[in-house]
Amino acid sequence: MGQATCDTTAEPSLERLLEHPAIWRGRSVAHTATLSTGCTRLDEALPSGGWPAAGLTEILTARSGLGELRLLVPLLARLGAQPPPRWVVWVSPPFEPYAPALIAAGVPLERQLVVRTAEPAWVIEQSLDSGGAALVLAWLAPGVATSVTVLRRLQLATQRSGAPAFLFRPLTEATRTSPAELRLVFEPHVTGGRVQLLKSRGGERRPLELRWQEFSLQERDDVAS
Amino acid sequence: MSRRERASSVTRTFRAPRHGSTAQVSSRITSTPRALTSGRPPDPPLPLESLFDTAPEAWVALHVRSSSNALAHLAEIAGGFTSRVSLEPPDAVLLEVRGSFRLFGGARGLCRQLLDRCGAAGYTPHWSLAPTPRAALVLARAGQGSIVLARDRLVGLLAPLPLALLRWPDEALERLDSVGVRTLGAALRLPRAGFARRFGPELLLSLDQLTGAAPELRRPVARRERFRAQVEPAFELQSVALVLQHLEPLLKDLERFLRTRQCGVDCLKLRLQHRKHPPTRLDLRLATAELQARHFAELLSLQLSRITLPAPVLRCELRSGVLQAFVAQSESVWRPGEHGGGAGRESPALIERLRARLGSDAVYGLCLVPEHRPERAFGIAEPDTAPPRSEPPRSASQTWLAVRRPLWLLREPEVLIDAPQTLQLLEGPERIETGWWDGREVVRDYYVVRDDSGAELWVYRERLPPHAWYLHGVFG
């Protein structure tokens, strides 16, 4: 880390000081706790090697159902199986989460909680603050104006609770500013998808083409067989 | 008491000769209600029977000549002495008190306190204590007011009583009367086989239950306790905040009520009365039983924040649901997820908070239904707040699960117009043809396709005319 800075003759003590998580320099990678995505190449492309473990991640897509949920399926399966049983909260999903597919992917159904609401931000904040949620997935409808202040509150809530939240938002929001820890654009690609980081604390900004086969499918096969 | 019962006034001259040596002792134990209720009987030395030779059960029968309302009331009083209370309609209550002797000062002390409580409530029941429920009942109907703890002393006491006290069918009683059998003792002396043949096994069983030769199972009274309280403030409450403030003492009462019973409730009903408008009703449903006033207040305030009061509130009424056993759990030092700390109360608490504000239909869990029709293969379930099972339940048919299914399903299939031209076929067809037995037959060919934007879709074509194409799922 830190090799891209202009000061190449930094003292070792200074190096150590700069590794402090509160200090974030342009291209360097801030050391934050992360959760593996289940795909090695995506892990490498993301700062600190995975999804932020306690932060807000925005996934922007042209519309819902393009494959963005499949990015998170390995995470859902792994978090659901972790011993302290906590909810995976689905806030206003655009369609019905389909139980047979979730089971087949190894996602434990009994930990999923679907919430249909007109005030998603309140639900996300409550879920995170209660300590009862392991992960929050939220779909903000295109019509709902989401101010920076609200997003900032959600980002702070994820940090307080130590649980990640994923917001799925329309691509039109890409030009607006957001306090989310990680923002990326997802678009479908032949048997996979293309991921482009919009905002990250470090990491590569090149578009990354992924194939679904890379998403630790052997785990899925184990469950299904 | 029927005329026949009263006609044969009770005589207690009968003593079984083989108990002659302890007859003196037993005569001390039997006593009249007058002696008990007058308050100052000389405390006799402890009867030998209370030290050994006692039956495992001791039943008190309370016999009143009033309505069934009195029975419910007596059962409530009896509930203060034992948990095993049973009704004998139309006019008696039975309670098993063997385990309560020590607490209430022996059989005598218990009976005295029980009668005092009945007297305070305005009842003067005939009573009796005996090792079997039926014997206690018969003795109480005879107006005996006796305490018998040993089973072998029982027959001697029952023998002179008229047979009618058993309330057998009149026809059987008349036939027995015609052969000169008029007392319980006489009936007990009859040959068993012949008795059963002539009068049926039920009456023989009833005799056996009387003496304790056969056990009698009694259905306990199920006590359904609820909390109910109301507050009528000195002025009309204009705002939700004021309502909450006035509810606070009620909730504290509720907590005290629940704590003394070691119970919790998972349902609370609140009724706010207005002057001219119909009352506002709020139902609070909790994911698990709870007893803390603070917790109720928080959820009520969330739910009240959803509504607007149509008019000022005159009166608040709070009612609880059925009480449920509540086991307090110690909370973890760590936050959930931190150092392996578990989420004990947090999981249900989250659901309660969300439901209080959004309504209970807005929050649900998912479950799997073994069904081939895709739209019926999943269900909406109550969120599973039970502690997790060690082995997650797997569906029986794994082959059925191995078929590729989309992560998203549309609630209603969407008609696709001139679909096949723009879609690129990836997989299929998968034929699903089932459900003819319940009128919702599906006859479809499912395909996995990719549309021009690159999204993978799950579409089907009706196999029946007009062969329309539908979008049913998205492989999101």
Quickly describe the structure.
The complex is a heterodimer of chains A (225) and B (476). Chain A is of the alpha/beta class. Chain A has helices spanning 12-18, 40-45, 73-81, 99-104, 120-130, 148-161, 217-224; strands at 34-35, 51-52, 56-61, 87-91, 96-97, 112-115, 133-139, 165-170, 182-189, 192-199, 208-211.
What does this structure look like?
Chain A has 225 residues and is of the alpha/beta class. Chain A has a single domain (29-224), classed as P-loop containing nucleotide triphosphate hydrolases (Rossmann fold), CATH 3.40.50.300. Helices cover 27% and strands 24% of the residues of chain A. Chain A contains 7 helices and 11 strands. Chain A has helices at residues 12-18, 40-45, 73-81, 99-104, 120-130, 148-161, 217-224, and strands at 34-35, 51-52, 56-61, 87-91, 96-97, 112-115, 133-139, 165-170, 182-189, 192-199, 208-211. In chain A, helix 5 (120-130) packs parallel to helix 6. Chain B is α+β, with helices and mostly antiparallel strands. Chain B has 3 domains: 3-211, 2-Layer Sandwich (Alpha-Beta Plaits); 228-325, Dna Ligase, domain 1 (2-Layer Sandwich), CATH 3.30.1490.100; 404-474, no CATH class. Chain B has helices at 3-7, 23-29, 33-37, 68-78, 106-120, 133-141, 154-158, 170-178, 184-189, 192-199, 201-211, 240-261, 293-304, 346-358, 398-402, 419-422; strands at residues 59-63, 85-88, 92-96, 126-130, 228-231, 263-274, 280-290, 313-320, 324-325, 363-368, 378-381, 408-416, 424-434, 442-450, 456-462, 469-474. In chain B, strand 14 (442-450) and strand 15 (456-462) form a beta hairpin. In chain B, helix 6 (133-141) packs across helix 11, helix 12 runs antiparallel to helix 13 (293-304) and helix 13 (293-304) runs parallel beside helix 14 (346-358). Chains A and B meet through strand 5, helix 4, strand 6, helix 5 and strand 9 of A and helix 14, strand 10, strand 11, helix 15 and strand 12 of B.
